[in-house]
């Protein structure tokens, strides 16, 4: 599976689209807003630039990115009003992989601009939005061109499925699973961690060349309670998805599919930040979301995020049946267990 070609959230505005199934992500972003506000104000009040260049990495195709942009503008506008100084210009870059539904994302812009003008009294000549297609695991912007970077619900996706998930005979080391589980061998844990370390190091190195000295980043990604990524209450949805697939397709098909996903611990993240050396990790905060009340909600949430990869491996024809069965399995699980998603918000500063 070529991850950069098949990984994208479901486009459009249909029942299974990311646009209509991203309230969990909106809740996560909202809970991390205080840290974002502090970071953008610290940045702005240090030098009061006449133009702020801001990038949202992994923007997807729903309204959440414009929700973040709107909040950033509100925060700066309030500070400018307090200080009786003019509002700066905003250059906003929206980034995702080329397969992202940018058309749907851009369709929200007319309403967004209208609200800027009518509700926030911000001139349309003060906010410029552009799309940038490409992987954030490499360079995206010119040297020292960005003041602020935001990324939410994206950095846990890897650039590729880790290597080393099979033995010398070509047999899967993760039989019957699509992600790390409690019965997965230690070598599987190491392979996933090694891939995340490479990806996040490259992410930081790329951003270090694009962000000005003193620039800021606020990053939100899925984490576990510890360095053990198999803790069931965090990743029950992957276990249940694997069980559902095993009931529908051959074991060989399941064994040859592994998610390009890793949920790091704060200790693992800190180690990579320190090794790369360009950013200081100023603050971090753990956010727990416990708001899945039905199998239908979970099934729509997971389908919107993973259907492109699942259809590539198992065929689009089984998707409706797969997620009907999955919904039932999740309902059974939720009758006995809580559904928890744990996220980590990081605030970082580019060293001078």
Q: What distinguishing features does this structure have?
A:
352 residues; alpha/beta; single chain; seven-stranded mixed β-sheet
Structure in words:
The structure is a single chain. The chain is of the alpha/beta class and 352 residues long. It is built from 12 helices and 7 strands. It has helices at 3-6, 23-31, 33-47, 64-83, 102-107, 109-118, 186-210, 232-246, 251-255, 266-276, 295-314, 319-334; strands spanning 51-57, 89-96, 127-133, 146-152, 211-222, 279-289, 341-350. Strands 3-2-1-4-5-7-6 form a 7-stranded mixed beta sheet, with helices on both faces. Helix 3 packs across helix 4, helix 8 crosses helix 12 (319-334) and helix 11 (295-314) runs antiparallel to helix 12 (319-334). The protein is globular and about 65 Å long.
Brief rundown of the structure:
The protein is an alpha/beta fold. The chain has helices spanning 3-6, 23-31, 33-47, 64-83, 102-107, 109-118, 186-210, 232-246, 251-255, 266-276, 295-314, 319-334, and strands at 51-57, 89-96, 127-133, 146-152, 211-222, 279-289, 341-350.
Helical amount: 40-55%
Q: How do the strands line up in the largest sheet?
A: 3-2-1-4-5-7-6
Instruction: Based on Cα principal axes, name the global outline.
Output: globular
| Backbone structural class | alpha/beta
Order of helices and strands: HHHEHEHHEEHEHHHEHHE
Give the total of beta strands: 7
State the major sheet: 7 strands, mixed
How many helix segments? Answer: 12
CA(first)-CA(last) distance? 40 Å
What is the arithmetic mean of pLDDT?
A: 86
């Amino acid at each position: 599976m070529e991850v950069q070609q098949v990984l994208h959230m479901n486009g459009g505005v249909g029942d299974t689209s990311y646009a209509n199934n991203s309230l969990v992500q909106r809740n996560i972003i909202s809970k991390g807003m205080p840290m974002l506000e502090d970071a953008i104000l610290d940045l702005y009040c240090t030098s009061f630039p006449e133009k702020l260049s801001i990038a949202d990495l992994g923007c997807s195709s729903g309204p959440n990115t414009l929700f973040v942009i709107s909040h950033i503008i509100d925060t700066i506008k309030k500070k400018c009003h307090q200080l009786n100084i003019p509002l700066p210009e905003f250059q906003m870059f929206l980034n995702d992989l080329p397969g992202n539904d940018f058309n749907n994302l851009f369709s929200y812009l007319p309403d967004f601009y209208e609200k800027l003008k009518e509700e926030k009294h911000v001139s349309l000549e003060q906010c410029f939005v552009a799309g940038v297609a490409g992987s954030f695991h490499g360079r995206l912007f010119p040297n020292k061109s960005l003041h602020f970077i935001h990324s939410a619900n994206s950095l846990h996706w890897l650039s590729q499925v880790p290597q080393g998930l099979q033995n010398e005979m070509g047999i899967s080391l993760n039989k019957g699973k699509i992600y790390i589980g409690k019965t997965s061998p230690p070598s599987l844990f190491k392979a996933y961690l090694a891939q995340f370390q490479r990806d996040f190091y490259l992410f930081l190195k790329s951003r270090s060349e694009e962000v000005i000295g003193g620039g800021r980043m606020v990053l939100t990604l899925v984490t576990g309670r510890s360095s053990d990524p198999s803790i069931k209450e965090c990743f029950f949805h992957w276990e249940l998805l694997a069980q559902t697939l095993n009931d529908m397709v051959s074991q060989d098909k399941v064994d040859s599919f592994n998610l390009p996903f890793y949920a790091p611990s704060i200790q693992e993240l800190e180690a990579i930040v320190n090794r790369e050396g360009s950013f200081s990790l100023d603050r971090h905060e753990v956010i727990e979301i416990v708001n899945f009340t039905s199998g239908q909600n979970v099934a729509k949430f997971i389908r919107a995020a993973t259907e492109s990869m699942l259809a590539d491996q198992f065929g689009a024809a089984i998707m409706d049946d797969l997620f009907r069965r999955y919904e039932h399995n999740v309902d059974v699980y939720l009758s006995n267990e809580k559904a928890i998603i744990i996220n980590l918000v990081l605030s970082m500063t580019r060293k001078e």
